[in-house]
Amino acid sequence: SNTEDLFGVEESLKELTQLADTAGLMVVGSTYQKLVSPNSRTYIGSGKVAEIKSAINALGVETVIFDDELSAGQLRNLEKAFGGEVRVCDRTALILDIFNQRAATHEAALQVALAQMEYQLPRLTKMWTHLERQAGGKVKGMGEKQIEVDKRILRTQIGVLKKELESVRKHRKQYRNQRLSVPVPVVSLVGYTNAGKSTLLNQLTGANVLAEDRLFATLDPTTRRVQTKNGKEFLLTDTVGFIQKLPTTVVAAFRATLEEISESSLLVHVVDISHPLAEQQIDAVDKVLSELDVSSIPRLMVWNKVDKVSNPESIKLEAEKRDDVVCISALSGEGVNEFCNAVQEKLKDSMVWVEALIP
Ligand code: GDP
Predict the structure, then answer these.
(1) Based on the structure, what is the number of domains in the chain?
(2) Ligand 1 centre from 226 Cα, in Å?
(3) Which range marks the domain in which residue 339 is found?
(4) Tens of pLDDT along 196-235?
């Protein structure tokens, strides 16, 4: 029950649900509790623990996710309370899972692995004290010794990863130059989580993806080739969604998953214009973008889900007044051709701009 200024508890839980969905989990329910301060042993109160436990039994729940970061002790106590098979994790672990699934470059994968290990380090106690308990106290102290060994192994692995990251970074510039010589422009989708980026990606492609197309067969699943009506083409790539309450330990991993956008020809900012907090979400995305090295890349804003707003006509009028905004419904396909045209226009602009720089 963490209350933020912009996003209330329910908004935050809704977002957590979407994140779980993104991670491939099926969410069967959510609940929250108002406490003056979190319970130091179990984060939530004992009544709430019992309530969740009966829901676990009734629904066959496998995973319980908490919206705030839990301590090692809280994780252990909750797993014990919920019974052996249930996995308890927190928002941070869930986000790291998603980053892990979505890391498209070697560098991003390393950065995510590093963040996952750093997250595990203070939480190692869990597993071993559990074993000690199972052994019925006969091996007292064994758990503690084992934790020290494990921590040392983990620290060594963290050191190795950091070195590897350093060398990958050194070589990145070379590869970047090579990649820039690819004639097909890369367009990156950015936006708040749940804005509709992957829906747009799917709406635009599908039929256009040729199985025998060797050049594009190696693309990762979040990049697709889009062919516009006039025969021009570009690569459209999805990025991991922007989220509020990003723990500091995962900020670096998040950045790394976004780093490839600095190599794109155009950034398309997808907005869920039907969302009551659309404005705040736009600001949150802009803030992160301003911290990345992308200020010179042209941008296009897409107001998505126009089928869902109560006043589509005034939204469309407002968009028309602005230079860089296109209204679409990624779900129905409305406005998607206009979107492709706008992308072509923008790409043309940027090509002219590059040519103008070369004497
Ligand atoms: P992402 O996190 O930005 O990739 O968002 P998704 O593409 O996964 O979409 C999130 C949710 O919004 C899904 O349930 C989509 O079906 C829904 N959605 C996406 N685009 C539209 C749209 O244009 N209209 C409506 N009504 N729903 C949409």
Answers:
(1) 3
(2) 19
(3) 184-357
(4) 888 888 888 754 443 334 444 445 556 777 877 777 778 8
